[in-house]
Structure formats: C-alpha cells, structure tokens
Amino acid sequence: MEASATLSNPDSICGRYEVEIKWNGKHTLIVKPHYLEWKSQKIFDTETSLGEGNKVEFRVFVPGQTTEWLENVVGLFESFSIHFDRSGSFRGTFQRQGEGGLECSGERAVSLEEQAAAMPTLERQLSSQDSSCSVCYDAWSETSAAVETLCGHRFCIGCVVSCCRINPPNTKGVCPMCRAEIDVKDLKRVEFT
Questions:
Q1: In CATH, which of 2.60.40, 2.40.160, 2.40.128, 3.40.960 is domain 11-108?
Q2: In DSSP terms, which residues pair with 83 in a beta bridge?
Q3: Do residues 118 and 151 make contact, with C-beta atoms less than 8 angstroms apart?
Q4: Where are the domains of the chain?
Q5: d(CA 48, CA 7)
Q6: Which DSSP state fits 145?
C-alpha cells in the first residue's frame, strides 16, 4: 500500500496496544512518533498513512507468517485500516494476504510507569532508615517509583509486581513484609522530600 500522507502520530495515539483479531488471537502493536511496530517488523512513516480523525492504514510483510488458504507460502503481507478514539482504543479491519478482512480492536496497554503516575500521592520525609526499597534494596530515585501499602510498607513499583504477585489480571496480592493482603487500588505513590 502506498502512503498518501506522512505519519506524524499525535501523542494521543502513541503507545503499546493489545490487538485482538477475530479468529487470530491477540498480538501487540506499538505506535511511536515516526513508526509502527507489528510482529517485530517496523513500519516507518513513509509506509503509513494517517487519515482524518486518527485513522491509520498500513501494510507490512511478515516473514514466517503462513495461512491455511495459501499452500507452500511462507511470509505474507498483513494490512490494517484502524481508527483510534479518544479513550485509548481502536477498531478497524485486518486482512492477511490470501484471506478476507476481519474485525480487529485494540486497547492501550498501561505501563508500570503510567500506573504509578496515576496513583494518589503521599509526601514523606526521606530518612536514612527509609532510603531504599525493602525488597530489592535499590535506593529511591526519580526513575524508580515508590509505593506505600495500607500496612505502611514501601516498595518500588517493580517489586509490587514481582514480589507481591500483582500483575494483570490480578489486582490483589500479599505484602512480602507482613503478609497483609494488598490491593492495587489502595497503593499510594510516595514522593520523598
């Protein structure tokens, strides 16, 4: 597909999306300012078109992709025509070479950093006894978000996911310090002063 315009993605659609394609399962689409990434293949802005209202169309060759409809063919083109909405999702059509069009939809995947930024914030005085995560012992910094549980223990956001076993779809886990049940909705982001 020839591009009819240069892709200059607004920040509103940049991100990682979990894409569900009817009868084809789930895959990840990454939208960056000057390229898209689909099945480890980068599609640069010259190969993509951005239409009115955040409609994006692109076609990509996927090496190793096969289909039941084309015998002895390895490596196929896949095409998308999708429309992003304001809520961080999209809908549209997907078509693989040799097959008919299928409905597809995608939801923006939220990163740990985005989850931490959206949490309510507590301000705490940094003390020598509380200068690092109580699980991994990494010192608090601007790049490692600290969170506090209802039981009063503080961890970096990475340890909440790994040690407390809170990762989607789970929203509840256990505090590794006192074994109290913790819930994602009760975590507070800590800013040290």
A1: 2.40.128
A2: 55, 91
A3: no
A4: 11-108, 112-192
A5: 6
A6: -
**2: which 2 tokens?**
């020839």
The model's pLDDT over 92-128, given as tens digits with 9 standing for 90+, comes to: 999 999 899 999 999 888 766 666 666 666 666 666 6
Distance CA 30, CA 60 (A): 14
Summarize pLDDT for 123-147 with one digit per residue, the tens: 666 666 677 888 888 887 766 678 8
For the domain covering 112-192, report its CATH number: 3.30.40.10
Interval 9-54: pLDDT, tens: 456 778 888 899 988 889 989 888 778 888 888 888 655 555 556 7
- Report CA-CA distances (Å) from 114 to 10, 13, 15, 119, 180: 18, 15, 11, 9, 25
Q: Tell me which H or E stretch contains 159.
A: helix 157-162
Q: For residue 10, which phi and psi values (nearest 5 degrees)?
A: -65, 150
> Facing residues of 35 across strands?
44
